[in-house]
Amino acid sequence: MLLKETTPHPAFSYLIYLGCAIAFCTIPFGSATGRNLFYISSYISFIAVCLNIKYFVKNKKNLILPVLFFCVGMGSIFWLQHFKQPGEYINIYRSYMSTGKLLIATAFILLIALNERLCMQRAFVVVALATGIAVNGYSLYQGLWLDIPRIEINFDRATVAAYLITAINLVMLQAILMLRSKYRIPLYIIGFLVTFSTLVLTGTRAAMLVYPVVIALSILATKNLISHKHKMLLIASVPVLLLVSGFVFKSQIEQRIDDFKTNMKLVSTPEIDNSIISRITMQRIGLRTGTMAPLGQSAEQRGEEIKAIVAKQPELYGVMPYINVHLHNELLETYSLKGVWGVLFLFALYVGLFVSSLKPHRNALLLGVTFSLFVYGLSDVIFFSTEGTAIFCLAIIASVLSMKKMQVSQD
Fold it and tell me: Residue 308 and residue 332: Cα distance in Å, rounded?
């Protein structure tokens, strides 16, 4: 039975995607059950691959993305196994242990999805719409009815909520375009207005700036689902909808602009927590500490190097509150801890995702999710957050499954 080249039994796919669907619906609300089901789906995927390994290795192109995810995940595991020790930096090791395992789990599920023969578009639409409505509805409830200054859903950071919401909304909006309804264009416009408003309520400046760009990019990349005329209509509606949302949430946007101006005025006061200047400082520190240990180092060693640098250059003090967390830049954080090899794996993953979104079939959703993952990674570390990693990985898996009807019909 082992090493068969035959198509795996459909029961594997149904069980795997059921677990992923429940995970996608529940993780945004802080449920550990969703994360556990994601792992269970990966175990089932591993069994399916082992039982039909010749089938899954037959198409070499479909191995590229799963191998890249596996390498990035195993890189984190090997790094922490070599350097991990108890102490004030233990949370860094725990976070990378969790996200490393999630990336490895993604590799096996993605291998199943890339080789899937079943049509999954209807299930994709149902799950995407249900999750999107639930997450945005709850977010608007927190922001408008509970009057929470920066909505966090069920997390302790509004930025994490913004990243989760971005990935979920990209999936939901793509599902709207896939509806067989003459009202899908108006529904898409309403969906964009609601989803952007939700992101405004998180108060995350990066999300407010990146999301409209990602939406425009996704619309332009969409193929076969909408006509050129509808593309132009949607693109033209984006700035109008931004103005409408800006008018409705004027006070929230003005508050974040004022915070930015205040941060810029405090540039010369390094001892005061300043999110803008701290990020720039952390990126400078990440580059310097990574250069000191190009083959990788422990969180403790990096921490000592940072303290020594700040002692000599007090103007870099903004990095100190984050010394036992991360350096708010995915590539430089990886470089400062895992060295050159870690950056090469991560960069290869980004390139692999971008290329896969364009070839062999243009995948607008995968392009949008990848672009947002990369851009958010310039000011934060997505693969440090368990929930952020899980949702983005699930969105990538969903983007592959969203194309399955077209690919099956072409095979």
Answer: 19
Q: Are 306 and 318 in contact (CB under 8 A)?
A: no
Q: Tens of pLDDT along 329-347?
A: 999 999 999 999 999 999 9
Report the alpha-carbon angle 173-176-178, nearest 5: 115
Q: Cβ distance 29 to 138 under 8 Å?
A: yes
**Is the peptide bond prior to 239 cis by the omega test (within 30 degrees of 0)?**
no
Model pTM?
0.92
- C-alpha dihedral, 74 to 78 to 79 to 83, nearest 10°: 160
pLDDT digits (tens, 9 = 90+) for 85-137: 888 999 999 999 999 999 999 999 999 999 998 888 899 999 999 999 999 99
Instruction: Please say whether the beta carbons of 28 and 153 come within 8 A.
Output: yes
First-to-last CA distance in the chain?
26
